[in-house]
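ESCALATION

Customer reports they have been waiting on this structure for their group meeting. Please prioritize. Original submission:
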Amino acid sequence: MAKIYYEKDADLSVLNDRTVAIIGYGSQGHAHALNLKDSGQDVVVGLYKGSKSWDRAEKDGVKVTGVAEAARMADIIMVLLPDQTQRQVYEESIKAGLSKGKTLMFAHGFNIHFNQVVPPPDVDVSMIAPKAPGHVMRDLFTQGPGVPALLAVHQDVSGKAKDVALAYGRGVGCTRAGVVETTFREETETDLFGEQ
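Update from on-call: job pushed to the front of the queue and completed.
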């Protein structure tokens, strides 16, 4: 039987004094960043210089900086880029900013499952995968119910990877609707199967 987590299972204070970097500001990125900001979290958006989203993110009241700088500054790095660009951006801009005690997060398991992104052994790696497009996620967050999500832990160095992922899930509003525990492999394969 799948384990489902709700608000009572997720302690938002786990994110206190931590900076969350949202890498990308597309459909998912803007929803994650704004929902976390509205939940009282310290959020920075990482974008490449010249990104069309830069002005939009600033207008939305979010701190914006380059991807490498955001990865260096942050304790939790959520990668919300298209699957096909994640590996290159990770290698060029994110990897050097990862250090012991940080958390690398994804909203889809593809690049971890297929070893396109191979994180260092001293960081936690987890996933919160909301089951809705970003604009729906944002709308339902502001209206109250939130959208459900999947949670997975790939690498738990700190012993707290699941707690951090659940806190993140609460920050973006997903624990209101329910967060279902899975694995990176299951999420990737069911997602690819569903797309076919």
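Sent to customer with the following note: The chain has a mean pLDDT of 96.
Escalation resolved.
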